[in-house]
Design a protein that fits this description.
- It is a single chain.
- The chain is elongated.
- It has 1 helix and 2 strands; from the N terminus they run ββα.
- Helix content is 19%, strand content 13%.
Length: 70
Amino acid sequence: MPAEDAPRAKGGRCPVCGAASEVKTRPFCSPRCRDVDLHRWLSGSYAIPAAMGDDDERDSAPSILPDVEG
C-alpha cells in the first residue's frame, strides 16, 4: 500500500516528526518513526528528571550489612 493511500488517524500527529499519524502505526506516521522512538527509549534518551531532596543526600544504595556500633 503506497504511503499516500494509507489510512490516517483522525487528529493525531506523529510524536517523532509531526506528520499525520496512520491507523496501522498509531501514534506514529510510519514504522520508521516507531522504531526511532523505541531506540530513544532503549538508549536512555527519554528520562524523567528527579529533584534532589533531603533523603537523596546520603548514598542511595541500600546497605545489606547491619549497622554495628561499638
